[in-house]
Structures are given as C-alpha cells and as structure tokens.
Model the fold of this input.
Amino acid sequence: MDFNIYDFTSFTTWVHNALTSSMSPGWAMFVELAIVGVVFIAFYAVIGLYLVYAERKVCALIQNRKGPNRVGPFGLLQTIADLFKLLMKELIYIKNADKFLFNLAPFIVIIASFMAIAALPFAKGLHAIDLNIGIFYLFAVSSLGVIGILLAGWSSNSKYSLIGAIRSGAQVVSYELSVGLALLSIVIFSGSMQLSTIVESQANGWWIIKGHIPAIISFLIFLVASTAETNRGPFDLAEAESELTAGFHTEYSGIKFAFFFLAEYMNMFIVAAIAATVFLGGWMPFHIPGLDGMNHVMDYIPPFVWFMGKTAFIIFIMMWFKWTFPRLRIDQLLKLEWKYLLPLNLMNIVLIAFIVLMGWYIK
Amino acid sequence: MEEIFQDIIIKKSDDYIINMGPQHPSTHGVLRFELCLLGETVKYIIPHCGYIHRGIEKMCEKNTYQQIIHLTDRFDYLSAHMNNEAVCLAVENALEVEVPERVKYIRTILAELNRIASHQLWWCAFGMDLGALTTFFYGLRDREPILDIFEESFGSRLLHSFNCPGGLMHDVHPNFQKKIKDFIKYFRKILPEYDQLLTGNIIFQQRSIGMGILSKEDAISYGVTGPSGRGSGFKCDVRKHHPYSAYSKVDFKEILYTEGDTFARYKARIDEMWESLNILEQLVDNMPAGDYTVKMKPIIKLPAGDYFQRVETARGELGCYIVSDGNKNPLRVKFRTPNFSNLFIINKLASGNKIADLVAISGSLDLVIPDIDR
Amino acid sequence: MTNDQLKEKINGWISGLEFPENKQYLEVVVPAESLLKLARLLRETPETAFDYLFCLSGVDYGKQLGVVYHLESTTHNHALVLKVKTDDRVNPNFDTVCGLWRTAEWHEREIFDLLGIKFNNHPDMRRLFLDDEWVGYPLRKDYKDDINIIER
Amino acid sequence: MNSEYLILFFLLGVILVGGAIVFSMFVAPSSKNSAKSEPYECGIPVKSDAWIQFNVGYYLFAIIYLIFDVETVFIFPWGVVMRDMGLTAFIEILVFFFILVLGLLYAWKKGALRWV
Amino acid sequence: MNIFKYFGEVFGAIRSLWAGMRVTGYYSIRPGKVVTQKYPENRKKLIIAERFKGEVIMTHDANNQHSCNGCGICEMNCPNGSIEIISNKITNAEGKSERVIDKHIYHLSMCTFCSLCIKTCPSNSITWGHDFEHAVFDRNKLTKVLNQPGSSIRKEIKEVKETKEA
Done:
C-alpha cells in the first residue's frame, strides 16, 4: 500500500477499504468512528496540554523568566502533572447553585470546541468532515462556547461569576460579527465556503499575499476579533482576574475548572487554525512563482507540518498580544467593535468586492 | 456644612452589594471595598479597613525610642527607610542633635532609592491591575538592583531598620557609590521602555485619561498627598517645602500635574522616578566623608513636650507626632500615614465609574494597606 | 503670617486662650466649646486660610484626653497646632471638624475607635479598625487586655 | 457520511468531559462543609442574591447584534457568487451595505452603542 | 465626524500597540535576558551579602569558646522579647562568684531583625548569621540556643573585664 505524508487521501481510503472488506458495513463504520474518535481525543488532549505549556513558556520568556522547568526535561511534562493534580482535586458544589446548568456548562464549552475541530483540514485528505459550508459551520460552532460561559457564570450563584458571564455575552456576541465578516472577505476571493476548496485555491499563493491590502486588513481584524471571541487577553473581561478574581469560572474547581481552561486553549487553537487555513494557505507550502528550486524545497516539508507551523505562528502572535497589553474596559471593548472594527470591515468588504470585480488581485 | 456632606453614603436595602476584598487580587493586601453596583457601574464604595491593624502606636508607647524604629518599617513597607527617618529626625530635632553631613547625604540617597523601588513596584502592580501582566515582572526585575544595594549595605532587602536616632546603624558598604552609579545608568536606559509598554499604549491611555478626576480643593481637603495629590496640582512635596536631611542641597523639580485624573497620577510617579534619578546623581558623587553617627546616650529621654516631623514617603506625607512626658518611653506616638488619608477619597473618585475603573483608580492611588491600618 | 500675627489674630477672635511653649509650631489650647468656632474662623478667614489639616491625633495624657489638630495653609505656608483637652474620661466629646476638612472624618473615627472620644455631629461615628463589638478603647492608658497585651 | 461524524464529535465531547468528571469523583477527596459551599465573595458572607435584574445595556448590544448577524448570514451566499456575478452583485451589495450602514449610523447617533 | 481623524486614530492606536509589542517581542526572543534562577540548585552559586541578616548567631572559636558574659543588654534592648538569657552564678577557682551564661535563648519566630541586640552588645559576642532557610515544620524548632553545648567564656574577655572593673 502506497501512502505518503503529502497526501492522506490514499491512506484514508485504504483504511476504509481494509475495514469494509474485512467486516460488515455496520461494524466497519463503527470501527472507523472509534479510530477517528480515539485519534481526535488524543490529538485534542495533546494540543490542549501543550498549548498550556507553550503559553507558560512564551510568557515566561517575555517576562524574563524561566517558566516551567521542573517536571520532565524543560518542564515538558508539567501540564500533564497539572492535569493529574486537577483530576484529584475536590469538586466543590456551591450552595444554591443551579446544579444542572452548573454541571452542563463544561460539557458545552468542550463540545463546541470538539465540533469545531472536526471541520479543520489538517492536511491534504486529513479532515473528519469536509462540509461545503465549512466556514459557515466553523463560524456557527465556535460561537457555541459562549453559551457554556454564560451558563457557567449564571448558574454559579456568585456575583463575580454573573458579571463575568454577562460581560462575556456582550463581548462574544459583538465580536462574532467581525469574525464572520473577516472570513467573508476570503469567501469573496475564493468563491467558496468549503475549507478544502479554499485551501486548494491558495496553491499558487496564500490569500494574504494574493489579496494584498484588503486581505491583510481582514487578517488583522480577524486576529483581533478572534482573540476577543476566545476570551483571551487583552479581551479577557469575562475572567478579568484583577476585577472579578476569576470571572465566570470562579466557583469551578478541579477537573471542571480544567475543562474551561482547556476549552480556552482549544478555542485559541481553532481560531488560529482557521486563520491559517483561510489566510495563510492551510497546509499549502509557501510558493513563490518562478523560484522553482525553493518551491521544491518547500514541497518537501509535509503539509501537516506547514499547517501546524502556521497555526503555531498565529498562536504565538495571540500570546504576544495577551502578554503585552492591558485589558480593555467593557465599554471600550464594545466601542472598538462597533465603531472601529465593524465599519472598517464593511468598508473592507466593499473594497474587496470592487477588487474582485476589477480583477485586481493575483489570480 | 451640609453641602459638604452630600457625598455621604446612604445605604438602601435593595442595593446590589458586592464585596471586593479582603481576598481579592487587586486590593493589594487585606482591604475590603463594599461596592454597590448598578450593572457594571459602581454606585458607591465603602472602604473597610483594620484587617491588619497591629496597634503599632500602642506598641510604641511601651518601647524606647530606638525600639520604635523597627516598628515604623512595617507600616509602609515599601518606603521603610523614610518611615525610619521620620522618627529619627523627630528625636534628633527634639534633642537638638546635629547629625553629620555624611548621614544626611546617605539618608537622602537611601530615601530616593527607596522611592524609586517603591514606584517601580507601584508601576508593575498598576499594570497588573489593568491586566498587563508583563509589567509586573519588568518592574520587579528592575527593582532587584536597588534591593541588592540595600542588602549589601544593611543586610536586608525590604525592612532595613538602618536608621537610629543620631545617625545610622553602621556605615554603608564600600561598593555603595559604584553600585548606585551602575543602577542609574541601567535604569535610565530601562525607563523609556516603561513608557513604550504602558504610558503610550492606547488601551492604557483610554482607561486612564479623564478617569477619577480629583480636584485640587478636594485633594487638600481630603489630605491626599504625595504623587496622588500632586497629580491634582496640590503642592505638597515635603522635600521641597519643608526640606530635611540633604534635600535643601539638591536641585530638583516638584512634579505637578493639574489634570487630577488617573493618568496624571501615573505620570507624576513616572516623572518622580526620573527626578529621583537626578537627585541621586547630584548626591552620590558628593558624599562627604565623616562619621556615620553621633554618640547618643544608650537611653534616650526626650524633654517633655510634643514634636512633629514631616517627611515625604513614596506615597505622600508622613507625619510623626511624638508626645513626650520626659520618660524613656513616649507618652503617645501618632503616625499620620499618607495612605490613611489617600484611601478615603476612593468613593469620591470611583463612584459613577465602572468596576474596571475602580481597580485602575485604587491602583493609581498606590495604596499600601498596612500603612492604612498601622 | 508670622506666628505673632497669628497669635494676635486668634486673640482678637477669642480672648483668653492659652499659647503654650512650642519650638516648632504656634500652639493654641482651645476650650472644647469654642473649638468649632475657632476652626471655622481659621479655615474661612482669607488671611489665615488654614485649608490643610495634615494631622489629627488623639492623645491620652493620663488624666486628660485631648485632640491635637495640625493645620497648615497651602496658600500662606503657615502652620498652627490646635489643642483641645477634656477631663471627662467617661464620655468625652468634642465638635467634629469634618465639615471643614474632610480628612477629619476618618481621623475622628480612628480616634473614636482607639481613644473613645466622641465627635458631635459626625456623620458616621463608628469604629474604624476594630469590630463594633470590641470592648474598651485600646490607646487609653488604663486599657487592659490580658490576652493580647503581654507586659514584660 | 458527515452526519455520523458530527454526532461522533458531539459524543467525543460528552465522553471526555463525562469520563473525566466521573473519574475525578472516584479519586478526588470530598468533604462537605457549609463554609466551603458558600459562593466566593472575598471571604465575606454573601448578603443578597446574585440573580437580579441586570443592566439593560448588555441586551441592547445583543439586539443590535441580532440584526447584524442576520445580515451577515445573508452576505455569505452573496460572497460565494460574487466572482461569477460581477457588477450586478457589486451594485447589489452597495445598496445592501448602504441600508446596513444607515442602520449602524442611526444606532450610533442614537447612542445605542454608548455604554451606560 | 472627521474621516481623517477617524483613520488617524486607528493608525495612532496601531502604532502605540506596536511600540509595546516591540518591547515584549525584544525580550521574548532573548533567553539570555532571563533573570530568574533555579533556586535550590544554585545554592552553591548564591551571592549572600556579608552583612546579610539571616539570624542571630553567637560566634565560637576553635576551642568552643564564646565571649558572651551574660550581661543581658541584648535581652533588654530587644523590642520583641526574642532573647532570653538564663545565667548561673558559679564560684570560680579564686573563690569569687561570677555570672556564667547557661543558655542564650533566641526566639527566631519573634525576631524582627532590627539589629539592636548586635549593635548594643558590649563584647561583640553575637552577630548576624547568613542562613536564610528558616522554614521548619515545628514552631518550637525556631527557638534556638545560641551558645553551643559545652562552650565556655573566652579567657581574655574575662581578664579585660576584670581589669576594667579594677
């Protein structure tokens, strides 16, 4: 069986054929689903844990510190140790809390991030679902997490949590718009909402290069808006620790708290992955037309590495944001969205429509 | 008289009360604000203090004058040296002892170093209040050289009971001058970074400019001193108006801003760091040789009467009021600590603003809670 | 204004005041009933304009209880010490000056808390540091606390 | 084929969270304590109820969002066909945005975007 | 609303944000600027100032002799009562009775490191030690006896004192 790390389509069809030939179709599907499930849970856990590690290391470097360095070499096992510690922490129940919603909230935030991760194209032929409205789906699912945050804050029966939850409601709801409109600009360029098509359309250059100024503007807007949507600093108003101690997850303890924490990092991964897919060409290698030698070298790097590399780059930028800026106040946050990002975004879309109309982008 | 009481708080039973502190990250210690909220907006704030009231004034009544010194370290621990100096100067003035020039110079240098260290810690904590966590580590990093100087000369980094009535405990370390010069060179390079990171930042400016405006009249009436008062144009720099130690020999500006908002208070402190560097530069090369203390009797008895000494700590005016009845123990020692007066302006400044502004405003007042409670 | 001028001025308002010896500041001992009157005149007369109360301390002199006001004028840069004393240790009370200097409100609460001196017309006369249930006034010389104060 | 995968990923979330919580219930210690189950309020006993009527300001934004979000949903299909339709689509979107921006400006001028 | 002002604001904001990101970015790629240290591992490399106030110790020489004659001045000067001296009266070889310390007790838990005991000690018998790792599991371990078991007072000191008295 020939499969390579450059194209996973043959690999997945081989797995599919092998399964269907050896057992009944129902069982084959079950085993397939089980394999996919195990792989994704493992992937999810590894990404989540190592993003936490990465954030701690990056912020330590920015702050002239060493960061985690005790557990394992360079502290690589630190977050795994933390996970076990959190598993063994007591789950505290809050008096008068709405128990059902209180327990439901971590499920919602995690499920939302799982649903989103399903649609990401990790490499050629390596995606669980390839919907023809992929961007739309991601846009919809990634905003589900806010329901979890709202529920968490509201059901805790704590005043700090409630303020955090309501803040996050207003915030995520607003920034949702900018995320959508920023993604729309690439939909206009590529003429498709299917993620695999969008990636394929960047074979001769990434959209951020091909779409020049308007694409860069949308990329910046997307970065800002998606940082806000994932409740990360400088937009971490929902858990503003100097104001609300821990905001919406004040009352959560142990592993339930860990899920909010994990979901925050997974959401960061998801938005970074979307940005990488849509603006930076997903798993497409970096090509400059004409320079064939370099293009060949770039082709040797597997698509999966390209994808993860681009995602890591965007995650680094988001961390860089977080550890540099002071937090915004709620009214400034909304002002930024409604008076700056949204009008700029609308103007940008008109500009893109015009550019597409005149054909002034690199085709 | 009635119109002056219009900001007296009237509690209602259906107020949405939320407690901020004593266990809260941004009250910098165990201070409790009882907030009444209207959505995100703060209606009124009732500060509750006394969580770390240790009765230092009562303890002072049982101790001799030398033994008081180490207690004064512990109210405003960030300007420990200036607190010590207040008691020492009060006792020296009461006994009419003239301390050597060298002592005056060293005391002034230490006070300015301590002021820089304190403002650095304020800067990093203020940044953290606003959510910029990196400032915290940069501030602490730059504070380290000062603490090293302290440690080398007096053996402790924060609470150095280094003064004693009549001079200093012992002479400074031989490396003292060289290290200070190194520090000045280092910190002059680093300070502009503070501006890039926070002062010029658009988010920071939006959050601080025009927030919590304190008028000059209020500053005087509420007794808000130090950089907080000077941000409102209240000329309250004790170093300038009632010079002590070697301050009459140095040339420095009193930092004054007239806006009175959070940003003005912030700028006043940043500018004070520059000014302190200037003072240090003027003093460190001209330290006269001489004795580090004058011979004092082992048991000091102040003549009956009362004595008042004002010094400028990093947070404002510290008054040390000693009433003596001629014994070896004082009859009454009262410390007029700057933060005690600075705290109670908070209701006036922050009510009507948001919770986030309350955090920013209380950060800009630079509260040190043990200084309030004593 | 110099201290002599101030003395003259104050004598013109209220006669028969005592001016004890004090090397640092001009000191005036006021009877409790004319405290508020003098404070108001000092605060509101343009020539004196004592607008800055930089220290307010309560003192237990053993027999007497007293309150000391350190005043300064930010415009004229002169300072004055007002003293008021009472022999009444059971129910000492003075008029509040927090209408003139707002900072006095909390200083007076502190004095009430620690020395038990009540201030009439004070808007919020509660304990500041200690619990409301606390018995006694710790800064008084005759305060006894066998648990927290260890005599050596 | 896609619908099974959607259900799968939904279930994955449930399994991960549910499994971890159940596992944690077995290994984690548990002790009932009335002080522990108090909601956090900086160590002070909680006085009033947390669930109150909250500031209407937040909902104004939610309403404005709703309008714009529905518009965004309309723009997406337009975005897909923009390249093919050309000038017609461009003029259409200009008209559409004109109305949309008019609404935004109206809300702006009315002060609905100002935080209260 | 001035459209130029609007865009001016946007670009000004981006510039100011970039200024801050430059500072943090500068440090993020320079691991050499890291200032924190691995503490228990770097014990050997620790630079402790010679005047460092770790705890009060009594200096003993090679013959296990100290110079404390139990005068009690440090006990008197200590503001917190963290020093207690238990001394015995013994009769020496010449038949004179003299005071010898039995135990010089130092309560580290009560010490505020004010240096008054060390400054006032007439025979310079106590000084600051450099040990700073004071954490113990039992509070009673913080009460230390400063004179080593079996130690005695240094001869010269006694002689100096006697000549002074004479």
Observations:
- Chain B has a mean pLDDT of 84.
- The CA atoms of residues 117 and 329 of chain B lie 33 Å apart.
